[in-house]
Amino acid sequence: MYKLLLIQKYLLKRRIAWVSVIAVTLCTAMVLVVISVMGGWLEMFRNTARGLSSDIIVDAQSLTGFPYYEKMIDELKTKPEIEFATPMISSFGIISIMNQKSLGVQVYGLRANEIGRVNNFPQTLYWQYHRFADKAETAATTAEKQSALAEADAAAAKASFAKPLKPEDYRNSLPTSQKRTIDPSNWPGMIVGAPVIDIRKEADGKIAGRGDYNLRYWIRLTVMGIDTAGMKVDAQNKQERNYWVVDDSRTQVYFYDSTSVYVDFDLLQKDLAMEATQDPPSPARTSQLQIKLKPGVSLAKGKAVVREVVDKVLADGNAILRFPPIVQTWEESQKQFLGAVEKEKVLVTVLFSFISVVAVFLIFCIFYMIVAEKTRDIGILKAVGATQAGVATIFLGYGLAIGIVGGGLGFLVGWQVCHNINWIHEQMGKLLGIRVFTPESYAFDTIPNTINPREAAIIVAVAILSSVLGAVVPAWSASRLDVVKTLRFE
Amino acid sequence: MPSPVPILAATSIVKRFTMGTQTLTVLDDCSLSVTPGEFVAIEGRSGSGKSTLLHLLGGLDTPDSGSITLDGTELSTLSDRKLALSRNAKIGFVFQFYHLLPELNVLQNTLLAPMVGSTFSGYLAARATLKSRARDLLEAVGLSDRLTHRPSQLSGGERQRVAIARALMNRPAVLLADEPTGNLDTETGTHVMSVFESVRKQFGLTVVMVTHDRTLARSADRVFTMTKGRLFPA
Lengths: 490, 234
Prior knowledge:
The complex is a heterodimer of chains A (490) and B (234).
Chain A: H1 2-13, H2 15-52, E1 56-59, E2 66-67, H3 69-77, E3 82-97, E4 101-110, H4 112-115, H5 126-138, H6 142-157, H7 167-173, H8 176-179, E5 189-193, E6 200-201, E7 207-208, E8 218-226, E9 233-249, H9 254-257, E10 260-264, H10 265-271, E11 285-286, E12 288-293, H11 299-316, E13 326-329, H12 330-333, H13 335-373, H14 375-383, H15 388-419, H16 421-432, H17 439-442, H18 453-479, H19 483-487
Parallel strand pairs in A: 4-10, 5-9
Antiparallel strand pairs in A: 1-12, 1-13, 2-11, 3-4, 3-8, 3-12, 5-10, 6-7, 8-9
Helix pairs in contact in A: 1-15, 2-13, 2-15, 2-18, 3-11, 5-6, 13-18, 15-18
Chain B: E1 8-19, E2 22-34, E3 39-44, H1 50-57, E4 65-70, E5 73-74, H2 80-90, E6 91-94, H3 106-110, H4 112-117, H5 120-140, H6 156-168, E7 174-178, H7 186-203, E8 207-211, H8 214-217, E9 222-227, E10 230-233
Parallel strand pairs in B: 3-8, 3-9, 6-7, 7-8
Antiparallel strand pairs in B: 1-2, 1-4, 4-5, 9-10
Helix pairs in contact in B: 5-6, 6-7
């Protein structure tokens, strides 16, 4: 009983104990925020990568692609494990935005009406999804919110490269000198990564650079077909095509968005000379197949089925490839990318844990000071019959109490900081002009703010354990003090 | 008629302190026997070894040779834990400098000994009785209106009376008082001693008191003088 009473009194009445509590609080909050942000960052990468990848990907790992993909799709559709499959071309190109800005980009050719059946690409589009979904965030009622989300889903289901403006609007968008010679209303549609046309998130968190005028941007895309015989670039294979921007995509991974454009699969296939030819006879090619598995089918099982189909179709077509397409699960396809973030999380956690060791030493030092300050009290306690274990328990319990209070407060502070981290970041941007979490550096333009309850529990437990550890040696020393000397202590 | 069995007995106690290369014999062959209900005073100059003897009698320190028996138990045979428990149950200390815990109020300081000696559940079960006894003792020393005051809010005399109440809380077999008025002015010291005498008689206490004040020692049943580490009947 006296132990509890003294622990309570020492905790409430010794200001030096508050320093320990503050140290534990700050360390707990710091580690919690760092791990949560890093964990959230990794989770965002995983979710984004998951959303943009189908379950299984057949990848040529070559710019020239692989043949017989249509047969593969037909064959895959007969398999009970497969929900859907669609081809996608991934290549490189150079774009010129209205002859005023040129960029090297990753060009994706996809079937807009199919891609939504294997991944979440349509949900990254502004004009065909977020324009409606954003209304849900400001909806006054649940009904309005549901209506906005339904409208967004309906628009995404019909995602396409269709041009939203009238032909004359496109004609009027070009300078008079150009309109005389060409009819721009025939140009096809292109979806661009938002940063490609300078749509960005400002320091205050608002999106800038987006408006109806984006839909009057035209872009010339130059791609190079690669000869399948010699695998060489031939200037004669250069293809240029003008497109109208019909939408912008924000996957929230900056380096995807800032370098990606999306066009119709058939057009890109043609421009890259990957379509079927008669002379010489050559089957059409694609660089990827994106495959969605039926619910409940494991990635491993799905991968095996796809591998079997790919091998069979290539064998049937006598396509002997030294470098056949690889079949990967979405996790395998993103392994290097996610692995780097995972390692970074571990590294940062270890580094911050080292810093937290400082808290243990701080508690150690403070407890030594407290023991020195309380030397006479220890003598009094022993004089009235407290045992060595009893005295040690007081100081260990004191450490435990500091750990529980500090760890608990640290959890609350860390939770509040994580919960409001984007608001804090915005305020730092507004008031101080400081913008730490830039999409150029961290890929995302919002800071992850989800706390993993298991990690939070471990962090608080480690904080409590550290506090007790910091008190062990001073507690032992206190218990060993000579009672007569302590009573004479001035 | 056989002589009563001593409650506290010290036999041929020797205590030395080593300071650097010098060894100082503080107690040299001291023997003392105290029977139940007896009030023994030990007088002597400062540094004569009185407090050291008191610490040894209370089991706060161990002699280099000789034996100390408390209520029939040889203290040197007890483990640290058993010695602490024995101290809690059988000995009450009153120190010159009061030695109250500054964070606790008067009532909590008085309850310290039973709190130390009880388990958590045991204390809770007996809490009402113990608090009632603590209040009675504080009333006996004239502090019933100061229960929630902290030591820093009390005068020296009041602090010493709290220390007396604390020492009596566990109904000790022996009360050891080390210069109980040594830190008080004459008037306050006299008042504290009258309180001390009053409770001693009221509770039939066995007391060993060391003091350098001969007038205080006069009220004792037996008086010893400590000179250069040796104990002589006065």
